[in-house]
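In line with agreed milestones, the collection of sequences with tokenised folds has grown. A representative record is reproduced below.
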Amino acid sequence: MSNLLQAWRSWREGKAQNMIDPALNNISPNEIMRCIHIGLLCVQENVVDRPTMAAVALMLNSYSLTLSIPSKPAYFYGSGTRSLQDMDLWAGNIGSTTSGESMNHASNTDPYPR
């Protein structure tokens, strides 16, 4: 089982505190739980359900906001909904040669912004 799926299941079952590293004993468990909750919102299947970076920053800085309930995360191995080939396709790894050149001979984009 992936760590992401394990985190989601633990959070859903109210057992996410068991995942907290004991070395983080000087940080509030409630603050850590809120960060886990926000992280799970950021990996939702449907893009419209994911918070924007501005919303994430607001969530991290304001405890008065009510966070929505995250559903099962979208991308993790072993989910049964995504195959490794789907993941490679999504990541752009299918159709490449070992030299990094595209099989359809399309040019690569300049990695530096203009």
Notes: The chain is about 35% helix and 0% strand.
